[in-house]
Amino acid sequence: MGRRRSRRKGQCVRENEEKANNPHLLMPKVSCSVIDMSSITPTSVFFLLCLLASNSGAFSKHDDLIQRVSESAREFLSSLSDEQRGSVLLSFEGNERYSWNYVPKQRKGISLKSLDESQKELLERLLRTVLSDSGRQKVKGIIGLEQILFEQSGGSSLRDPEKYYLSLFGSPGGKKNWGMRYEGHHLSLNFTFGSGGEVSVTPQFFGANPANATGVAGFAKDQRVLHNEEQIAREFMATLNDEQRRKVVVSDRAYREIITGSLLKVEPLESSGISLGELETNQLELVTRLIHIYLSSLETGLANSRWEKIESDDLDEIRFSWAGSLEKGDGHYYRIQGESFLIEYDNVQNRANHIHAVWRDFEGDFGRDFLREHYENHEH
């Protein structure tokens, strides 16, 4: 069945593979082989040491990206009135930065409803600095689905497609840490920018209701905003033999909601399911592709550095588990859990036509990891 593959640093060779949802995101296919020591030269030793140093646990630096985001944020701020700026600018040190959610509710920040068309365009430019094309399409699709719920509810104020809010925590640019959140029903994008060039991109939440908007006026035929998040997982499940399936399916009944909800901080869930080290090559490629679907919403550099962080863990020990039915149209749940991260996906509500999907980082949500290092190593 499966075979063990060593993931020791410096022994993995990346090969270009088919790209995921995002044409700009390179999906590495990982293959490993033992180094032939007789072929080592002084030059190759140098590059090997550089590789090891780059993967030694230091945080990836994104100074150029942060500069672009900061400039775009400042341009957006310059278009606002004093009252509008007072709404969007919040304290970086306060608790509000951690108060994320994905339900319809009143939020801090400035809403789409409060912006004119030129300001909305500047907001779109700001989002473009941190999201890929596919990520922005997901955002637009989710907000479009809110219009359906608005009409179905008879115009409820809670189902307003313009109640999506931007919040900026601290001052964009300069030498201090700052953050950004774009959030509304079924959407929560949280970014933390470190003064040393670090960037955190979690929590990251996307939801879809209806998950399949086929036949709804104004939507393309067979439009499903989070289609690949379900489809690739099903393709993987279809490859499993009986023994593997018994490991993967941890419950015949799907959980009604993602287990971690909108918790401020999450810990690793129970270790269950099957590890990547137990999979055949074609199965491993499908799980890798599925992970990249979640990464592909991000700007290329952010997505790649997030994958590098995952690669620095023990890839063999990443685990995939499933709960619920394997039949399309029935409630189902899955999660992918590694040493540093957790992906949860749930589609149970509204007759399994209502998706919640989240990416969490155990130590890095809201930049906790690099902020902790910063505070430990610098006087304040």
Note the overall shape.
Answer: globular
Q: Helix coverage percent of residues?
A: 25-40%
The end-to-end span amounts to 55 Å
Structural class: alpha+beta
| Number of discrete helical segments | 11
SSE arrangement, N to C? EEHHHEEHHEEEEEHHEEHHEEEHEH
Task: Summarize this structure as a short list of keywords or feature phrases.
alpha+beta, 2 domains, disordered N terminus, two-stranded antiparallel ribbon, 380 residues
Task: Tell me about this structure.
The protein is an alpha+beta fold. The protein has 2 domains: 159 residues, no CATH class; 150 residues, no CATH class. 34% of the residues lie in helices and 19% in strands. It is built from 11 helices and 15 strands. Strands 3, 4, 5, 6, 7, 8, 9, 10, 11, 12, 13, 14 and 15 form a 13-stranded mixed β-sheet that branches. Strands 1-2 form a two-stranded antiparallel ribbon. Helix 2 packs antiparallel against helix 4 and helix 6 packs antiparallel against helix 8. The chain is globular and about 65 Å long. It starts with 11 loop residues before the first strand and ends with a helix. The N terminus is likely disordered.
What is the fold's blueprint, element by element?
Layout: E1 12-17, E2 27-32, H1 42-54, H2 63-78, H3 82-88, E3 89-90, E4 110-111, H4 117-128, H5 133-152, E5 165-169, E6 178-184, E7 187-193, E8 199-200, E9 204-208, H6 227-238, H7 242-248, E10 249-251, E11 274-275, H8 281-295, H9 300-311, E12 319-324, E13 332-337, E14 341-347, H10 349-352, E15 355-361, H11 368-377
Parallel strand pairs: 3-5, 10-12
Antiparallel strand pairs: 1-2, 4-5, 5-6, 6-7, 7-8, 7-9, 9-15, 11-12, 12-13, 13-14, 14-15
Helix pairs in contact: 2-4, 6-8
